[in-house]
Amino acid sequence: MCTLEQRGSIFILTLTGADQHRFNPTLIASFLSALQQAKSQATPGSVLITTSQGNCFSSGIDLAWARGEGKRPTPERLLHLLRLLKPVAAELISLPMPTIAAVQGHSIGAGMLVALSHDYVLVMSDSGVMYMSELDLGFPMPEYFSVLFRAKLGSVAARREMLLRGTKLKGEEAVRMGIVDSAHGSEGELREAAMRLGEELAKRKWEGEAYREIRKSLYPELCEELGLDLVKVVPKL
C-alpha cells in the first residue's frame, strides 16, 4: 500500500511495509489514488517525492499474483497487471509538478519503469540494484516499457546494457551511465538529497500546467503510447 504526506509544497508518496512492494492490483490502485490526491491538491511550486519503506523500492510485477493457483504466471494475469500498470506511468508523466524518485534498495522490472517515469532518480550507492529482469525471465516487454526506456535513456549503450544484457547495476555505475542522477551512501543521505532537491524545485513556484505540458512535449512518442494528448499552453498576457 501507499501513503501520501504533505510537507509544505512537497508531497511524499511512500510505498509502505517491509516487503518487496511488488505491483499487484491492490498496490497499483493505492499508488494511483495517491497520485490523484497529489494532483488534486497541487499548487504552484508543488513537488512529488516517491520513496519506500524497507530495503526495496520495488521488485516489479507481483509474479505470485500472476501465477494464481498455478506454478507459472499465466499470460492473462501478466497482461492484466501490465495493463493496470500503464496508467501509473501515464499519471507520472502528466503530473503537474516536478517528480523525484528516491530509490531505496532494489528497483527491478516494473519497479525500474516506475522510477524512470519520474523527472529525477536518486539511488543508493551500494544497497540494491537496478535490473530489468524480463530477458532472464523470458518475458517480452510491453511496448510502453520499450518506448519509455527509449525516451528516458538517451544512450544506446545504456539501453543495451539494461535490456539486452540484463545487467544488475549498482548506484554509482548507473550514475556514470546516465541512467540516474545521483547515488548516496545511506538511507538518510538519500532522503536528505531528495528533500533538498525538492525544496530547490519548489522555490521556483512553477505553474503546474506549464510544467506538465513542457515535460510531455519532450516525450511525444511516449505520450502517444500512453494515450496522453499534447496541449499547447497559451501564455498569460
Q: What does this 3D model show about the protein?
A:
The protein is an alpha/beta fold. The chain is 47% helix and 16% strand. The chain has a single domain (2-226), classed as Alpha-Beta Complex (2-enoyl-CoA Hydratase, Chain A, domain 1). It has helices at 25-41, 63-67, 75-93, 110-116, 134-137, 143-152, 156-164, 171-176, 187-202, 208-218, 220-226; strands at 2-7, 10-15, 47-52, 56-58, 99-103, 106-108, 120-124, 130-131, 182-184. The strands form 2 sheets. A 6-stranded mixed sheet has the order 1-2-3-5-7-9, sandwiched between helices. The chain has a 3-stranded parallel sheet with strand order 4-6-8. Helix 1 packs parallel to helix 3 and helix 6 packs antiparallel against helix 11. It is globular and about 50 Å long.
**Corresponding CATH superfamily:** 2-enoyl-CoA Hydratase, Chain A, domain 1
| CATH topology description | 2-enoyl-CoA Hydratase, Chain A, domain 1
**Neighbour order of strands in the largest sheet:** 1-2-3-5-7-9
H-E string: EEHEEHHEEHEEHHHHEHHH
Mean pLDDT over the residues = 95
Count of alpha/pi helices: 11
Poorly predicted runs of 5 or more residues: none
What share of the residues does DSSP label as strand, in percent?
15-25%
